[in-house]
Amino acid sequence: MEKHVVVILPHPDDEAFGASGTITKFREQGVPVTYLCGTLGEMGRNMGNPTFANRETLPEIRKKELIDACNVLDIDLHMLGYRDKTLEFESREQVANHLKTFLDDIQPSLVITHYPDYAVHPDHNAMGAAAVEAVRQIEPSKRPTVWAQAISNNYEAELGQPSIVNDITPFFKKKMETIKAHRSQAQGVLGNMNDELDDIEEIAKERLGVEQFYIWQFD
What we know:
The structure is a single chain. It is built from 8 helices and 7 strands, in the order E-H-E-H-E-H-E-H-E-H-E-H-H-H-E. It has 219 residues and is of the alpha/beta class. Helix 2 (58-73) packs antiparallel against helix 6 (172-181) and helix 3 (92-106) packs across helix 4. The longest helix is centred in the N-terminal third of the chain and has 16 residues, at 58-73. The model has no long low-confidence stretch (mean pLDDT 91).
């Protein structure tokens, strides 16, 4: 059993769509989970239909949604304060050093993040690279395992099969609850699914019922 899991992702809702089933499984085992969330996703384009937000109000809306989602998952949250869509321009070393302060304090046995260069969004790639670097700086005997999530179209062709394949359908109710806590984002994604099938939860389970990760190999 893991001692403590730290999730390092850049945006509110990244944890919901990508890892909330796995997080729920750990919490049901009694494992503490801490989420280091890089930004508030304040540059997101989903303002609702009808519109419920504007560029000025969206950051506070997404902040509240993030807090609500973490309450659903029963995990600790630290908001790191970076600006959405600018992580690729931050110093990787400085971000890694920032992350390492949390890792040194928490001393997790497992870190979950995005797989650099295979996570589509520049913020995903940058945060994943900084997280890997932060763990790399830890003395090997104390270094946590890193699970890196790849989401690009070509990841299996280039990286092979993922190391960890979690069927999270037993925890899917909690995953849907977490996704729906991010109301500004869920409306668009689940609405698109609803265009295809009336039963949103069933099509969501088909698409999001497995969470996959690669175990990062340090040199």
